[in-house]
Structure formats: C-alpha cells, structure tokens
Write a structure and sequence with these properties.
The structure is a single chain. The protein is α+β, with helices and mostly antiparallel strands. Among the domains are: 2-203; 353-501, Histidine kinase-like ATPase, C-terminal domain (Heat Shock Protein 90), CATH 3.30.565. Helices cover 70% and strands 9% of the residues. The chain is built from 10 helices and 7 strands. The strands form 2 sheets. The protein has a 5-stranded mixed β-sheet with strand order 2-4-5-7-6, with helices on one face. Helix 5 (143-214) crosses helix 6 (228-310) and helix 6 crosses helix 8. The termini are far apart.
Length: 514
C-alpha cells in the first residue's frame, strides 16, 4: 500500500508542476481579458444608449412636422422621454468609469481614460440640454445632432479597441494553453495507461460490487486483479458480501412475517372501528331526529281526535274534516319517518328537497290551521295578523311547512301560560319574510347564539326535546337559499323570522309580469 501511495503522489506532483507555470500565466491573461471584455461590453451599452437617444431625437423632430398639434400637446412627455434616455446613458458612462477604476492599469492611462469618459458624460448633458431646448422652442436646435454623432464615433472606437485587445490577449492565452495541453497530454497518456491497469480497473470492480450490494444483489464476487493491496481488498469485500447476504435474508423473512401480521390486525381494527362508529352515529342521529320530528304531528293528531270525540253533536262534515286532518298528519309522519331512515342510511343530516314554486302564504295558513285547535284548547290563540294574498318562492312546500311547524311547536311548548302566537308575512328586499311571535317565557341572551346548533338547548330546558328542532329548521331554510333568525327576552316572548328569496319575476313580450 505504501509503494502505491508513493507512486501516486509523485505522479500528481509532476503533473501539478507542469500545469502550474502556464496556469499562472493564463490566469493573469484571463483577468486582463475579462476586464477588457467588461469595458467593451460597457462601451457597447453606452453606444447603444447614444444611438437610442439619436433615434428618439429624429423621431421627435419628425413628429414636430407631421403632427404639430399632437407634438405641442405631448411636449412634456417627450421631454421626460429625453431625460430618461439621458439618465440611462449616464448610468452606462458611470459604469465605465467604475470599471476603469477597478482595472489594473498604469496611473496615467487610468486618469486619461477616466477623463475621456467624463468628457463623454459632459457631452451627453449638452446633448440632452440641446434636445430639450429644441423641443421647447418653436424652431429646432440641431446642435445636439453634431454632438451625438461625435459621441457615437468615440464609443464605436472604444468598443472596437477593447474587442481587438481582448481577441489578441485570448490568442496569447490560447497558444500558452495549447503548449501546456500537448505536454500534459503526453504525460497524462502514460499515467492513464499505468493507472488503467493498476488502479482504474480494480476500482471499477469495487464500485460495481458496492452498487450491486446497494441494489440487494449479494451473489456477485469481485475478481482479484491489480496490485497486492487491491487483491486483499477484493477478498475482504467478498467475505463481507457473503455475511451481509445471510443477514439480509434473515431480516427479510422476519420483516415479511411482521408486516403481514400488522396489516392483518390493522385492517381488522379499522373495519371494527368504522362499523362501531357508524352504528353509534346512526343510532343517536335516528333516535334524536325521530323523537323530535314525530312528536309535533302526534300531538296535533291526538288533540284533533280528542276534540272530535268530545263533540257529541258533531255532524258528518265535522267528523270528515277531523279525519281528513288526521290522515294528512299521518301522511306527514310517514314522510318524516322515511326522511329519518334516509338520513340514518346516508349519514347525512341535510334532508332531501324537491324544488318547485311554493306559495308561502298558503303554507303558512295551513300550518296555523293545524295548531289552531290545539292552542285554543289550552286557552290561547294563534292568528295571522298581516299577510299578502300570496308570496311565491322556489322551494319544497313540505319542508317549508315542517320548518314553520317546528317554530310554532316551540312557541306552544316553551310557554308556562296560555300561548298567544301572532304570525305575519311580508315582502322585504326581494325576500319573503315570515315572522312568528309569542308571549312565552323567552330565552336568556347567553343561550341565543347556540340555539341553532344540533343537540343544544336553552339553559331553561322544558319538555323532552333533544335540541334538534331549530337546527333542522335552519338546515331546511338554508337549503332553499334563505336564513332564519331569532330575537327573545326573558318573561316577554320570542320572535323568529324566516327569510326566503322570492321567485324572480319574468316579463312577457307585451311588458306584463308573470
């Protein structure tokens, strides 16, 4: 190993010695080339700025004669454009001055070059002043034309000088590098021929072997080639590969067994958890919604039947009217039960709706009629205080009645005295507004923000409800694009407003609304 290390160090030192001298020369020349190239590029940018300024000057002079009125109107803009071009060109000249200051030149040459650039900057200011004077005056001042041509000529000369100097310097560097390349190439060829046999081939074998192990292939073996050191490494590598192969096989078998067991147990646990969670959620949701939603129609049906039975002198029409109301409420209960089942199956609290034109006033009158006998039997009253003939919305009539009944049921249930309920309907800002007021016990102000949440009830809990009524009413109202709000005062009463967007009014060809 020591002999190989010594050979490599000697070869490296010899190559570095050959490269060092031309490298130093080339580095110095390249610095000069970069500086000259930078100055040539800066001079080209300055030249381009002068040329753009000349084009702008001729364009503005032409505009003066082609469209005098437009020229006079936009004169301020043209002057701003000239100043902008002058500022841009001055920035390039200042960049040239900085480059000259950073370049390794003799003091006199540096001072002379900076002085020339300062003169160019002064010429630029004179050109800008002449152009502005020409634009402001009635007659053009053409002094700027001679000045700008002279400035362009100077910048073209500078750019060509820097480019020619850069090319000459690059040529010298190229010759130096060519000589170095020839010498290094010959020596390098000899070193490569030696290293290919003694170093490169064994290293290539070692690299291929390590890559195969990294990819999981432990069957390959390294050939014993090269110097004694590389042969020893190859033998040690083959022994290590065999041990790693045995350990990897044992680990793979263990991991495979563990993964299969974990996957099986995880799948079983996930399935069980999902089944339990879904069953529990469906049970709670279904029982809560069913107990709340079925209570109202059952109470109305019972009251209707009791009132009819107590009326011993009832005629056939009265009996038919009572039975008709019972049948209609039974149908409503059937629809609610179907909705509850649908909600439980779909795990979705939002009820399905059938959107169609609905008369809000008609639905309101029907719901008030359903509660009238029940409330009057308790010594109270329910009446519609104000309502138009009709208000048409796009919604689901059954769901709208369900929301109204929920609010009316709350007005009856949460009142410690005979309920007095007043209902009104009006049109406001393109919306149908249903207002339901009662003289009940009222709601504490701290409970109002939470009343529309599911399973939330006021601090004064009355009855056996689950806190679902107002949340269901809000879901129904929002499904039809509306809102529901509530105002209440303790021991005074509660007012609930449902707002639903009216159906857009269409006009026929003769101008009538439909």
């Amino acid at each position: 190993m020591n002999s190989l290390r010594l050979k490599l160090w000697l070869s490296l030192l010899f190559v570095m010695l050959i490269i060092a001298v031309p490298a130093v020369v080339a580095d110095h020349a390249l610095k000069i080339v970069r500086a000259q190239h930078a100055r040539a590029e800066a001079s080209s940018q300055t030249l381009s700025a002068f040329q753009r300024l000349a084009v702008l000057g001729y364009t503005l002079q032409q505009e003066r004669y082609v469209d005098p009125q437009s020229f006079v109107r936009d004169r301020a803009l043209y002057i701003d454009g000239v100043r902008s071009h002058v500022t841009n060109a001055e920035r390039y000249i200042n960049a040239e001055i900085r480059l000259i200051g950073d370049t390794a030149l003799q003091r006199k040459r540096r001072a002379s070059a900076i002085e020339e650039e300062v003169k160019q900057r002064e010429t630029l200011h004179r050109i800008g002043a002449s152009l502005e004077k020409s634009l402001r005056g009635d007659k053009p001042d053409m002094m700027w034309e001679d000045l700008i041509f002279e400035a362009i000529r100077i910048e073209e000369r500078e750019a060509k000088e820097f480019q020619r100097s850069s090319i000459e310097t690059v040529g010298g560097v190229t010759e130096t590098m060519q000589s170095s390349i020839i010498i290094v190439g010959i020596i390098g060829l000899l070193i490569v021929m030696w290293g290919q046999r003694q170093v490169i081939r064994p290293l290539g074998n070692l690299w291929r072997g390590t890559r195969e192990i990294a990819e999981g292939n432990y069957e390959g073996k390294l050939p014993s080639v090269g110097t004694t050191e590389f042969r020893t490494i190859a033998e040690s590598f083959n022994i290590m590969a065999a041990r790693v192969r045995d350990a990897a096989l044992a680990m793979q078998q263990t991991n495979a067994g563990l993964e299969r067991a974990v996957q099986r147990r995880t799948a079983e646990l996930d399935a069980t958890n999902r089944s339990l969670a879904r069953a529990n959620q469906l049970r709670q949701q279904f029982l809560a919604d069913a107990s709340h939603e079925l209570r109202t129609p059952l109470s109305i049906m019972r009251s209707e039947a009791e009132i009819t039975l107590r009326n011993g002198n009832a005629n056939v029409d009265d009996l038919r009217h009572g039975l008709d109301r019972v049948v209609r409420l039974s149908s409503l209960m059937a629809e609610m039960i179907e909705d509850m089942l649908h909600v439980a199956r779909a795990e979705e609290p939002m009820l399905q709706t059938n959107i169609e034109p609905v008369d809000v006033v008609l639905a309101l009158r029907e719901c008030v009629g359903d509660f009238q006998l029940l409330i009057e039997a308790d010594g109270g009253y329910i009446r519609i205080t104000d309502a138009p003939e009709s208000m048409i919305i796009e919604g689901d009539g059954t769901r709208l009645k369900q929301a109204i009944r929920i609010v009316l049921d709350n007005a009856v249930c949460y009142s410690s005295q005979a309920p007095e309920v007043e209902v009104s309907a009006r049109v406001e800002d393109g919306e149908a507004v249903i207002a339901i007021s009662d003289n009940g016990d009222g709601i504490a102000s701290e409970d109002i923000p939470y009343l529309f949440q599911r399973f939330r009830r006021g601090s004064k809990k009355v009855g056996s409800g689950q806190g679902l009524g107002l949340s269901i009413a809000r879901s129904i109202t929002e499904t039809m694009g509306g809102t529901i709000g509530l105002e209440s005062r303790l021991n005074v009463g509660t007012k609930v407003e449902l707002r639903l967007p009216l159906m857009p009014v269409e006009k026929t060809e003769d101008g009538n609304q439909t």
